[in-house]
Specification:
With 197 residues, the chain is mainly β. It has three helices and 13 strands. The protein has one domain (51-192): Sulfite Oxidase, Chain A, domain 2 (Alpha-Beta Complex). The chain has helices spanning 61-65, 94-98, 178-181; strands at residues 3-4, 24-25, 32-33, 46-50, 56-60, 70-77, 82-93, 107-112, 117-121, 131-136, 139-140, 150-152, 165-171. It comes from Marisediminicola antarctica.
Amino acid sequence: MGIFSPGFGGKRRSDVPGLPPGQYLTESFPVLSAGATPRVSLDEWEFSISTESGVRHRWSWQDLLALPIEDVTTDIHCVTSWSKFGTAWRGVSLDTLLADVETTAEFSMAYSYGGYTTNVPLADLRGGKAWIAFEFDGVPLEPQHGGPARLLVPHLYFWKSAKWVHGLNLLTEDGPGFWEQNGYHMRGDPFLEQRYW
């Protein structure tokens, strides 16, 4: 059963530039999770990318912070209909992490501490579109929002920005993750209202 926080209130407005159809603006940062919040110590945290041929690339927390860090200001959109404009994040671009990864895969499955999964086309993770984010609004990312680190793919609905991210498996064929198996769209573009199958 999902866990909801206060903040799922707002007014839908179709005249707001940049607001996808069916969304409303919020100033809060609502929390929605499919289960309990995992607590991962920074000493034990690891992110990995496994290729379709089985090669695994790994980064510890210290390895991640040693990479080029980017400041990202972006809008985010949840499938539950809220949007938040101008959110501020810090993290490492997936372009940086994928730079030395040899692959012909076109798809990926993100997986998280706690067992959550979501599929994301590799094209949606490249070209300055996605990050491993560890700060929000100038402070370390809180566990309820996916800390210590989450995937940030802001041009897709926010369920694709996997909280508590642990790694990516690169795949030659697409397949559904947790919410996709439960009826959510395989891609999730908010401007096309790709909410459900």
